[in-house]
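User: I've been trying to design a sequence by hand for this structure and keep getting stuck. Would you show me what you'd pick, starting by listing the structure so we're on the same page?

Assistant: Good idea, let's start from the same input. This is the structure you sent:
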């Protein structure tokens, strides 16, 4: 497991840079093995890129639905 020294987000061993701030990752000496994954709750709470993309996508879906619902007929 690797950790971002700037924000503390955890990543799999094959990721080299933090998705949040681009900081090079360091190996976490305290990892107990298993399958390391990105800690999505912390990542999303920090307002990372994925959170922004999901927010924009849901907003676009809402706009399209509202346009379809209130579009003039005829």
């Amino acid at each position: 497991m690797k950790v971002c020294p700037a924000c503390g987000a955890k990543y799999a061993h094959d990721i080299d840079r933090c998705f949040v701030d681009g900081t090079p990752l360091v190996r976490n000496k305290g990892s107990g093995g298993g399958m390391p994954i990105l800690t999505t709750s912390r990542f999303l709470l920090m307002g990372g890129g994925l959170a922004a993309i999901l927010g924009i996508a849901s907003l676009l879906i809402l706009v399209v639905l509202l346009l379809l619902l209130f579009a003039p007929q005829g």
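That's my pick for every position. To get oriented when you compare it with your attempt: Residues 35-39 have pLDDT under 50 and may be disordered. The chain has one domain: 2-70.
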